[in-house]
Amino acid sequence: MTARNSYIGRFAPSPTGPLHLGSLVAAIASYLDAKAHHGQWLVRVEDVDGARNVHGADDHILASLQRCGMHWDGEVTWQTKRYPLYQHALEQLGDLVYACGCSRREIADSQLNQVTHHNQALIYPGTCRNGLAPGKVGRALRVKVPQSPHCVPAFDDRWTGHYSQDLTAEVGDFIIRRADGYWAYQLAVVVDDGAQGITDIVRGVDLLDSTPRQLYLQQILGLPQPSYLHVPVVLNEAGDKMSKQTGAIAFDDGSDPQQLLRSAILPAARFLGLDVQADSIDAFWRAAIPAWAQLLQTLPRGA
């Protein structure tokens, strides 16, 4: 593998609870990719959704990362300290932004919304694009997606291969500030990645579908496009993505490092396809970094 000194990666957990095995998989993948490329690994707490934040979860997450031997470069950042950056981006978007007074139910009931996105997300039919209907109050802010068959952002994912999405047909104008006043994930993540100089994003494949919207925002905000690698996500017994919403439990209960290695770190590595044997956390990382570099060579784009 060729070293890239300019590599800057990141892990961006939401403080809605402690890390579980699924989030550990994403953390390990992003850490290994940064280390295999001799790059920097940043940690950003994505706490922009204040309604879901759990008090003290950010401290627990940071402590768990350190107990697993993952040490970040520079200072940890919190999205709630970056609101001026999001406001500036909103102003840059100018006339592409408009107020929307539609509820989810109204969008679902729209005659224009007979087909939904493959992940069952609602396609916005553009009801408020040319102004609010009488009696409606603008709550959320949306960004316009060109009504063009050519608005199909595409990229080559380092794990899954080529991916594209017709934003006009499959998404429509999407929200950048929610009706409850919180900044939407799509805008915040793009602004943060641009401000931090992120060159490589490694995260779960559940976010693959979000990437074209982020590419679109990067383009109109004049931000560079990072490289992407979306790893498989851990599923629970019901076949759903393991998450706090589906009852995933914390992998780190404060037990001794050997137990943490056996019960969480090694299983997460095996899930990523790494056959690593180690009797300590330090030994795990010494073996896992070259193993990850070798694994990358088998992926669609290599490393």
UniProtKB/TrEMBL annotation:
One of its GO terms (cellular component) is cytosol. GO terms for biological process: glutamyl-tRNA aminoacylation; tRNA modification. ATP binds at residue 244. It is an enzyme of class 6 (ligase). Binds 1 zinc ion per subunit. Zn(2+) binds at residues 100, 102, 124, 128. Its cofactor is Zn(2+). The keyword ATP-binding applies. Residues 10-278 form the Glutamyl/glutaminyl-tRNA synthetase class Ib catalytic domain. A motif ('KMSKS' region) lies at residues 241-245. It holds the Pfam family tRNA-synt_1c. Belongs to the class-I aminoacyl-tRNA synthetase family. GluQ subfamily. Catalyzes the tRNA-independent activation of glutamate in presence of ATP and the subsequent transfer of glutamate onto a tRNA(Asp). Glutamate is transferred on the 2-amino-5-(4,5-dihydroxy-2-cyclopenten-1-yl) moiety of the queuosine in the wobble position of the QUC anticodon. This is Glutamyl-Q tRNA(Asp) synthetase. The lineage of its organism: Bacteria, Pseudomonadati, Pseudomonadota, Betaproteobacteria, Burkholderiales. The gene is gluQ.
